[in-house]
Amino acid sequence: MPLQGWVRIGWRASPQPLGVPSGGFGVCGKLGAARAIGRAAGGRELPIERDQARDGLPGFRPVDNESITSSVSAQPKARESENVGSYLLVFLVGAASSAALMPVLMWLGNRVGALDDTRRPAVPRVGGWALVLGSATALALVGGFFVPTGATLLAMSQSVGPVTLGAVAILLAGSVDDIRPLPAWTKFVIQILVSVAVYAMGVRIEIVSYPFGSLELGPLIGFLFTVLWLVGISNAFNLLDGADGVASGSAFFAATAVFIMSVILGHPAIGLVAAALAGAFLGFLPFNFPPAKAFLGDSGSMFTGFLLAGLAVEGSTKGPTIVAIAVPVMAFGVPVFDTTITLIRRLVRGRPIFERDQEHLHHRLLRAGFTPRQVAGVLYMASAGFALAAMLFINPGVRSVGVVLIVLGVAFWMTVRYLRLHEINELARLARRGVLQPRSIAMNVQLRRAAERLEEAKDLRDLQEALAILFHGSEFDQVALSVNSGEDRVTPSQSWCLEPFEGTNWTGELKLRRRLGRRSLLLDLNLLLEIVQPALGRAARQIEMATVQAS
Fold it and tell me: What is this structure's pTM?
């Protein structure tokens, strides 16, 4: 009976040791109890039999090629089918567990006082615990009954474990806040401390990507960026949780995007956790959809943001450079956009960053006439669109990046235009004024020179010529000089009028008219009043003196 052995077959383009031909298939094997695991065509073990000499390899004879091919092709399909089944089962069990636990958790929330008193009757804030328990139940059951799934979770515990521990710590702090509200700065400090601990356990952002390249971060910048990312996304979902069903629906699509990204990039354990979390959100949504019977609460929204942020960091590694951060930011597009607008709004207005307001996206949509269900539907579609756009970055190309940027630009423009984000409009106006600043400076210099010419006027004709030079090519539609005798000062409406300038027996007015709807003036109106108005007064007195002398 021939002895059985195992070989490892792998392609190498470099010279081979021990006499193996360069550029061919290298073969290594050890007979007996020890065996080397073959990795031909995806890591499959290929049996060989010991013989005297066959096919140029002394002492080894490969089995039939057809049997190898059929074995290799069958095993990947079986493993792929097994993985898909595990993901689907985790998702379904998470949804069922979360939905089944909600009645008990709602009763418990009423007993301990985790309630939102702004509604009548008060609404329990227990969604976070439904997500934790539902997803944990799904992972435990599927991992316990299916050994490969459990082995995958255990093997990847070093990447999933720190994120999960940090998210649970955030959940506990948020639960205290749901029962007895904590100051905003206290929650912020807790988030920072937990983020620092998670960074110390190995969850780190080392590369930041942008549409056409990437930037490798150093240790200090990487630390700050990681903490900012974890804390920022945690608060982004917390800020979004101000309308029924909005935060949970957006988080469902974000979790789905993280799941797809992790699976494509070869992180099955993170994919399992994301699938379980997405399932738990699906089970919770019927209780949170308008009119809501339960809320996520600070515990659920901050837990969701922290866990998804950490999973996105871990799940985006080992992929194309542009995947780092770009895909997670895109996947969390709705909460990231809302939080960015909120920070800009509060900074522009000089308001405290932690101050609550009614200016978030969902509030603006409600004021625009949408019903709560329509608001949820609109933001669900936006979240799904961002998740789809994020997938284009996984296999980046110039065309896909261009499409994403164009779509995002159009979406941003429509949001600013139709939701009346006045702070963004004001920043855009300032930026536009900055770009046109050289032209504005030139106009102001011309204004000063024209004021000097005004003072040299000897009669009204000289005054008219000086004004014509001053306002030639100006931004005004009409410039009118009125000279009246005595105290007759008639000032037409819908015009800008400099203060009357006067001589001894007459007065004059300079009227500047401009149509509504034109872009902002580049000419400095303050300078116009400061320089031109006194010059007109001096010109009037000089003209009066010249008239007296001539008579």
Answer: 0.66
The three-point CA angle 93-99-105 to 5° equals 125
* Cβ atoms 361, 230 nearer than 8 A: no
At 102, the amino acid letter reads M
Please tell me the distance from the alpha carbon of residue 201 to that of residue 310, in angstroms, as a whole number: 12
Q: How far apart are CA 183 and CA 185, in angstroms?
A: 6
Chain segment 273-332, per-residue pLDDT in tens:
999 999 999 999 999 999 899 999 999 999 999 999 999 888 876 555 445 567 788 889
Q: How far apart are CA 138 and CA 209, in angstroms?
A: 34
d(CA 551, CA 545): 10
* Predicted confidence (pLDDT) per residue in 85-130, tens digit: 889 999 999 999 999 999 999 999 999 989 988 888 889 999 999 9
Tokens 């039999």 belong to which residue? 49
> Could you read off the pLDDT of 19-61 as tens digits, one per residue?
333 333 333 333 333 333 333 333 434 443 434 333 443 444 4
**What DSSP line would sit under 404-438, residue for residue?**
HHHHHHHHHHHHHHHTT-HHHHHHHHHHHHHHTHH
Distances (CA, A) of 66 to 7, 40, 70: 17, 14, 6
Residue type, 159: S
